[in-house]
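Q: Can I see a sequence and its folded structure?
A: Here is a first one.
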Amino acid sequence: MIIVFLKFAVCAAVILYFGKRVARYGDAIAEKTGLSGLWIGVILVSIATSLPELFTGVGSTVFVNAPDLSVGNLFGANSYNLVNIVTLDLLHKGGPLLSAVSTGQLLTACFSLIPLSIAAVGIFLTPHLPDISIANVSIYSILIFAAYLFLVRMIFKYEQKQKKISDELHKEEDIVFKYDKISLNTAILRYAIAAIFIAGAGIWLAYLGEEMARLMDLGQNFVGSLFLGFATTLPEITVSIAALRLGAKELAVANMVGSNLFNITIIFINDLLYRKSPIFETLSQHHIFTAFIVILMTAIVASAIIMKPRKKTRIGLSGYAIALIIVFVIGAYINFNLGNK
């Protein structure tokens, strides 16, 4: 058991080091290309930090023959990404974090619910209705992938529109660049190298998490949604903390909500690789509860972005952060009981 925890510590240290570099060079790419921190966070950084979920899902589906574990990991990872905003809020100086980000984050948060809702509806309906599939891939998986492509395009168009407005407002101002000494090609290369290390360490971390869960004799539903969910989201929180310390608030939050948008799309990839049947025919109804918890937590985040609270509580957390903790803990408790029935 001690050896496993030592491996876990080494893996976490690698993620911490290269997570800082992913955040730094992701921020540099945003500056060099003129793309916003939101767009870079939603696409470039969130996909890089979600690679552990992707490869853990592939491993669970193809090699372990446990698609339930994979989907539980994805739903659980989304709940962890949202509760990780609590940590970012605690570290953010000068007021509630979500009051300091753009309304584009609201768009992404709300959009992340669409693939999630399709997945939850698919899990609920499949036992009751004939599952429509194409080449043994469920129609729900296809809808999830199509929704992701459409929503990412919508976010890009929104950001382009906001950029034009911002350029008009600031065209006469002197713009201060933070990364004058780094070329775009250098930033991309260093970002790619750091992302590879993050992905590799994150995949290793997922298998270590599975090994630790097995040694602790926990149920499969609990392992997938909570234990592996925590393990595979360590890259996200590490990168977001590094981004926050760089002053890249948009990138820090966008990495979390962008990862939630991308994670559910991994179900489509798993369905492509799972040849025994459409993947929705194998999934437990228990995942619907986890999806409900993620929807509720996303609603809290969206409400905070809209209402923009001005002050934190005496314990250094915003009211929405406390609400996120409460919902997460209650959900984890109920999920544990469901998973062991």
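Q: Show me another, different protein.
A: A second, unrelated one:
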Amino acid sequence: MAWSPEPIKSTRIYEEIIRQIKTLVAEGQLKSGDRLPPERDLAEKFRVSRASVREALRALESMGLIEIRAGDGTFIKEISVEALIEPLALVIFTQRGAVAELFEARKILEPPIAALAAQRAAREEIQEMEHILEEQAKEIAAGRTGVRQDAAFHAAIAGAAHNRDISRIVTALMDLLAESREESLHTPGRPGRSHEDHRRILAALQGRNEAQAMEAMLDHIVAVESLVMQQAGEGRERAGATRRQEPG
């Protein structure tokens, strides 16, 4: 194996081992399926005790980054997009302001994805999107939000780009934004506007117009972002007013 670990100087030795191995994976020096050297060799390379190596390996296994096979060795696992995005979910639950960063990610990712879908979508995939929007229209007409169809439509576009990792990323982003998306769809008039935006996106996909698909998707995300961030600001103002009214 070509990589050369740095000697460990940290007082929390096992954490530094974890950091170095994760860095090697991120840089591509360690790839999915690669077998790590035995504990004894790792201890010599890192210049630490075997106990520290063992502790680091157990932690890496619990993170899903490695697989320890009894009698066979320790191997780097295939890292899924979900595993990379999962830590972001914790941020969303603890820091509401991170929603703005997720919308920034959506504005970067989803318009080009819509362009790919305009280029690559199969006829059956376009038909499925049409069906989703028909169902969304029925939900809205019945006075509901159509939130399930909203998520399904975006997932269908990602799937129509015919790139598995793109589909996973968009699914993860939509899951992280599920609460704020549902809140925005409870705003009077918002479900209908969302449906109109989706219709515009679909028309661009049907016409195989990549530029229009990008523009329609970006306009849609910007509109939703504006509403969600406005609601978040109003929520903070209400919370502040409540605190000011409480007796000291």
